[in-house]
Design goal:
heterodimer; A: about 325 residues; mainly alpha; 15 helices; about 0% strand; globular; B: about 475 residues; alpha+beta; Dna Ligase, domain 1; nine-stranded mixed beta sheet; 22 strands; about 25% strand
Amino acid sequence: MLSRVANNLFWMGRYIERSEHIARYLNVNYFSSLDAPNQLSQSRQFVLRSMLFMVGDPVEDESAIVDEEKVLYQIGLDTTYPFSIINNVKYARENANSARDLISTELYESINKFYHFVLNYDANAYVKNGLHDFTVHVAEMTAILRGKMRGTLLHDEIYAIIMMGVNIERATQIIRMINSKHTDALRAQGSYGDKFSNSFEWTTLLKCAESYDMMRRFYKKTPTSISTLEFLILNPNCPRSIMNSLNQVYEHIKVLDTSKKYNKESTAFLVGRVRAEYQFKYIKEIETDIQSFIEDILSSLSEISQKMEKEFFNY
Amino acid sequence: METTENQMFSSYQRNPELFDEIYDKDGKIMSVYSELFDLYGEHSIKDYVKLNDKAKASFFNQGITFQVYDKKETREKIFPFDLFPRIIDPQEWDIIERGAIQRSKALNLFLWDIYHDKKIIKQGIVPMDLISSSANYLDQMVGVDPPGGIYNHISGTDVIKHKDGKYYVLEDNIRCPSGVSYVICNRTALKRALFGVFNHYKTHTVTNYAENLLDLLETVKPKGVDVPNVVVITPGMFNSAFYEHSYLAKTMGVELVEGRDLFVENDFVYMKTIRGPEKVDVIYRRIDDAFIDPLEFKPDSSLGVPGLFAAYKKGNVTLANAPGTGVADDKAVYTYMPQIIKYYLNEEPILNNVHTYHCSRPDELKYVLEHIHELVIKPVDEAGGYGISIGNRLTKEEIEVVKNQIKETPRKYVAQPILSLSVHPTYIEDTESFEQRHVDLRTFTVLGKDREFVLKGGLTRVALKRGNLIVNSSQGGGSKDTWVLKK
C-alpha cells in the first residue's frame, strides 16, 4: 500500500469516528440538560460552553454570552468552522476519494451517502428543531460505516490502518468527553444538592459514550465519579473504554509490524508500552489526579500517531 | 413532423430531414428496436420521470460526478445519462470493430516510422511539414523503442453515422482517451433501472474491459521482468476524470498512484509504500506528455516524476500510451489516414474518413474561405470540442472573425463538410418527453504485443441542446448505454 494513501485512510477512520462523537455529545448534552436536576446543568449557557469546550474551542471569557443557534450551526453545519461535523465528514470523504480503488464500493457508497446527507441538511431546520434528527442520523450513519468496514473490507493492512485511525480517535474523543464532563462536574459542584462524585454530569458522560445502560448493568448502582471513570477508562469489555481502544490498536499494529521482537523505536513497541501501563492500573491512581491522567494519555495517543506517521506515512 | 401512437413516444416528433436511427426509410421502427420500443411503451412518461430520478440518485451515491467550479464553492454534478439505449446490430458492429483495429494498428506503425526512419515522409506520402510543425511531436522520442513496439496502447476512435447510413470516423484519440468508465456505469445504471429489458436482447458485456486492459498491459512489460507490477498514475483527485482513474485501478486490482508516490533511482521506477520502495514496471498514465517528467518536459510540473523519461528510454519501464503519440491524433494527420492505412497495411480503410480541407494548402485554403458557411472549421490540436466553428451557425460578423483567424495561422485549421450526425430518441428533462438528439460513438481499442481488444460497446454521446452537433461532455453532452448485440 502506498504511504500517502495509508495516511489518507488513517485519517478517514479518524474523521468518521470524530464526527460521531461530536454528534452524540451535542445530542446528549443538549437533551439531558433540558430537565437536568440542578440549575447550572440546566442552563443553556452552561451546555453550549461545554459543547465548545469538547470540540476544542473553549470560551475563555466567563461573562460572554454565547448564542444558541450560532453555536449549534457552527458545530453542526458551518463549513468555515474547523471543528464542525460537516467538515469532518467532508475530510473523511476526501480521504476516501483518494483511496477509492482500495476500499470496497459498499463502504465508499455509504461514505458518499453520508456526505450528501450532511451537505444537503437544511441549516435552518437543523438549528430550529432538527438537532435530534440530525445528530441521531450522523451517529447511525457512522455505525453503518463501521459495519461496512468490518463486513466488506479485506482484513489486511489496509483495514488495520483504518482501524488504528478509528481507535486512536475513539480513545481521544472519549478522553475529551471525560475532560469536558469532569470540568462541568467541578463547576456544577457548588450548586444545590449535587456533590462532585455523585454529579449528574457522570450520567451525561456515560450517555455521550453510549455506555450508560451497560454501566448500570455492570455496577447495578447510580454512576459516581469513580465507577464512571473506571468503566470508561479501564474496563476492557466496554467497547468505548480507553482500555478497549488501546487493545484494539495493539491488535491492529501487529498486522502492520510482524516482527517477533519489536524494535524499541517502533510504533508497536510504544503501543504495547502504553497499553501495559493502563492494563495494570487502579482507578484510584487515576482519580486522585484526573487532570494529569488526561494530559498523559492525550500526549501518549498523539505520540503514537506521530510515530505512525514517521514509520508508515513518510513519503 | 410525424408522431407515433406508442404511449411513451406519443409526443415524439420526427424531423424527416434528420437520420433517425430507430426508424427505417419507410418510417417504420427498425427491427432491432421494435421490441425495445414496445417494452418502453408499456410505461407511461410519469414512470419514466421517476426512473430517471432514481438513475440520477444512483450516480450521486456511487460518486460518479465531476466538479463544477463557480464563484463561491465547487459543486458536484453528474454526467447526464439517458435511459433509452442505443443498439448496434452484429453486422454493423463488425465493421466498426475491424475498422477501429485497422486504424489503431496503422497509427502505431505510423508512430514507429516517424520516430525512426520516417519512410512515409521520404517516400512523399505525407509531407514533412505535418510532423515538424506539430506541437505534439517529441524530439526526445526519436529512436526510442517502446517495449513491445506499441505506442498507442489505448485508442478512442470517435465515429458517427451519417445520413447515408454509413459510419465515418470523426477523430482518433490516442493520448489519454477517457470515458470508458462511463460505458460501464451507464450499463450498471440501466440495469438497475430497467433490468427487464435485458431479458429480450442478447447484449455483449462491457465489464470485461479492465481484465483485458490489464492482460494487454502485461504483454508490453519491459525486458527481463517476469510478472510486471502495473500501476495507474493520475494527476490527483481534483482531476475531472479521477473517478475513471480510480475505477480502472480498482477493477484491474492495481495501485492508483500520483507523481509524488513514485521516484526514480538508477533509472528504475519505484513507488513509496508502507513497507518501503517497490519497483514499478508498467505505468498506465493518465497525465499528459508535458507533465510526466519535469526534468525532460515542463520543469514546473508537480504531477510527474523526475527521471521517469530517462528510465523509459532505458527500457526499464513501460508507459502507456507512449509519450509523443499526440502527433498522430492531430486533425491534420487524420486527413491522411486513408493513405497511412494503405501504406503500412496495404488495405483499404474499413471506416470512412470525412473529407478534409487543409488550410495550409493554398488551393484548399481558398475553397475554405469561400465556403465557410457550409463547413466545420476545427483547430488541429485542440481536444474536447473547443475552438470548433460550424459554418451555417455563424453570423456574418463571426464568419469574418473566423476567416481572419484562419488566414493568420492556416496550419492550425482544417475544414470538413458539415456532417449530419444521426439522431436518437433522448429523454429531455425540461419538456418531460423524448426528442431527437444528435449522437456519436466513442469506441475503445487496446493494443498489446501481438494482441488486441475492442470493447464491445462504447460511449454513445448525446448533444443535449436541441440541434447541437458537438457531443463532448465539456460542451453539455450526455450519454447513453450502447448495446452491441450478439450474433
